[in-house]
Each structure stands twice: as structure tokens, then as C-alpha cells.
Amino acid sequence: MFELNGIVCPIIGDGGSGVVVLREGIAVKLPRSYIYGLEDDHDDSVQREKEVFRRLKHCSQVVQCLDVSGPGIEMEWMENGNLRDYLHERQVSPAVQLSWFRKMARGLSEIHHHRVIVADIHTRNFLVARDVSIKFSDFSESSVMEPECDMRQIDDNGYSIYTDMGQLAAVMYEIITGEKCDFDLFKDQPPGPAKAAWPRREDLPRTQGIWLGSIIEKCWTKGAFQTSLELSLALELATEID
């Protein structure tokens, strides 16, 4: 529990980029130092996220941001928590999975249209609402690009729209197979500052015989989808498995 503005609030999330408390039906993400009273190297990530949420305020597949004027970020509360925990507790039908994938890709296309690279797409960074819809929620590692830039050409220390699609495909693989999949951009890199690098194909799982495997494989082939809109359109044409 944490007291925020005189209200005792349960802590509903505690990660490297901040702590999330629930205050009167609203999720509030706060810098770790605000909760624990110590300086933290990740405190500036909450401030960076505020900039991203300002840019993405009209994106339908991004968790609704209610206020960024205080020390943290006030957001709509997604009652079913993060997607990774949700999947550990429940079986999800192919129909629901496909609806998720379409919304994820549509959301990513919107995000890229607003010139943001997400950079950290994992099941833990999607939130699930009461009606089982999902939204992007974590932008602590994201980059805001110039409004008129060509996103197909942007490389932000190794991150790009292509690494976003590669990570999203790993999320799809994890949901479909139930096996954790990491599109690791830093595998085998030496200690110290490093630039994100495209994973070797042999470090990713096989996709043959897996539902939507051809789409996943295309995401893991850099440039095969030129934009996330192309990925979104491919998923709109996909069909459910039996």
C-alpha cells in the first residue's frame, strides 16, 4: 500500500521504469523514487513516457492517458492486468487471439504513424481490460521522432519500426504456442553500452506448422514488411485455425 494525496492506494505494478498504484479506479504510474524515497536511474523514464503519451493521445489501441501534469502518469485502469499474467491463468480461443493480433498491429501502425518507436514490446507490456480487449501500455523505452520523418529510414541506436514488428511477432508466437519467445536485440553483446542488433535467425524458434507462422516469419525477416500497416493488412486477411 502507498498513500497518495491522502488516499491509501494498493500497488498493482512494480517494474524497472516505475511503480503503478490504483487510486479510486485510476492507475497512476509514479517514479520509483516517489514511492521508495531513493534516487533511481530509471526515474527519467516516467518523464520520457509523458512525452510519448502526449504524442499518442489519439491512438485507440494505447491505454488512455488521463493526466500527466503531476509527478506521474494517470491512466485508465485495465482490470485484467498485464497480458503475460493473464495468459498464465487462462486459455484463450483462436478467435480472441486473432482479434488481439489485429488490434496490436493496428495499434502499432497508429503509433508509427505518430512517429514513435516503441522499442520494448512484450506480453507484460500489454494490458487487458474487463472486456478482454488489449492495449499498448508501456513506453518507458520508446523514442519520439521528428513529425515529418520517414519511419522506414529511421534507425534509433538499432531500434526501428522493423524491430518493433519483430518483437510483436514474438508476442504473437508466445500467445499461439504458449512458449516464451524473446526477440533479443542484445544477445551475445559485450558488457557496457550497446546498440540493438537484429537477432540471428537460428536464435529464434521455428515457425513451420504454426498458425500464422508465415506472418511471424515475415516479421522476423527485416524489411519483408515495409511498414506496420502492411503487417496489419496481412492479419486482417488471416483466418482462424480450426
UniProtKB/TrEMBL annotation:
InterPro entries: Kinase-like_dom_sf (IPR011009), Prot_kinase_dom (IPR000719), Ser-Thr/Tyr_kinase_cat_dom (IPR001245), Ser/Thr_Kinases-Pseudokinases (IPR051681). It holds the Pfam family PK_Tyr_Ser-Thr. The keyword Transferase applies. Gene3D superfamilies: Transferase(Phosphotransferase) domain 1. Residues 6-242 form the Protein kinase domain. One of its GO terms (molecular function) is ATP binding. It comes from the Eukaryota. The keyword Lyase does not apply. This is Protein kinase domain-containing protein. Keywords: ATP-binding, Kinase, Nucleotide-binding, Transferase. The lineage of its organism: Eukaryota, Fungi, Dikarya, Ascomycota, Pezizomycotina.
